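Memo to structure team: turn this sequence into structure tokens by end of day. - J.P.
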Amino acid sequence: MKTKPNVSGSYQEATPHRPAPSSDSSRGDTLNLELLADKPRFNSHLSAFLLGKHLSPWSRSRAKRSFDCVCVLSVLPLLIPMLLAIGLAVLSTSSGPVLFLQRRMGRHGRNFTILKFRTMIHDADRAHHPVTTSRNQLFTPIGPFLRRWKLDELPQLLNVLAGHMSLVGPRPKLPIHAISGLPCRAGITGAATLAFAREEETLDRVPGHRLEFFYHSVVLPAKHRLDAKYMAQATFLSDLRILFESVFRRWDNSTLEDLYDAWAFEQREARVLSIVPDPVPGFVHAPLVAHLERPASSGQIQAI
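Reply from structure team:
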């Protein structure tokens, strides 16, 4: 007997409830909250985190800002040759600017321009999908390589020096994906970044017509929960650990895989329930006679 996967994710706590079978196509977008009842989805507790009521002293300290600046200024001279080489590779393999500029929501809801090496074909007239998978965008020849190794994020060291970002923290969201402003600086890497480092490969397995539903109802709440936990518990040592795991690519994709498995299980279950016919009203099967194991005669029925 197949059992539902045990997932550590971020669904909303709720009273377990299984909807009745329905042929309505929207039934497939109903998630069974029993799967992750022990891990809350974005709720009032998470709101408190994001509003800064549970912000750790390190997250809002000047020492964290000083640590960021010292680290960036120390490694930037060593990274300049790599930055120049990547920029030249981007410029020589596709037409368009070297850097990709995008507005993101940062500390206290203030928008800023995030810097990345461009990894997609430059087309001013083409709208990019807000949820990126490994196949739904037109990547440059070196784009997938840069994204796989997170090298496209290196220009954000300048965002750190400008005070827009920190080395470690919640990733800055697009305004359409942001639930609220962050009480601390957004980060280049963080707990959610490590857990969702291979996000694009997993999202590629989600059907296109369900992609935004899956991202907004499953992925984003899980990211917000990890961000909230980081902001509440961040310390100097935890930042060092996250930086070490990011640099050496010690990524754990199990959280996202568990979330996807639970969601996919629900989709399969919904399809099965949607095709089960309802019983015909007023139809009663003839009772079986135990020793004959066949439908009873009319006389036997009357005797019963």
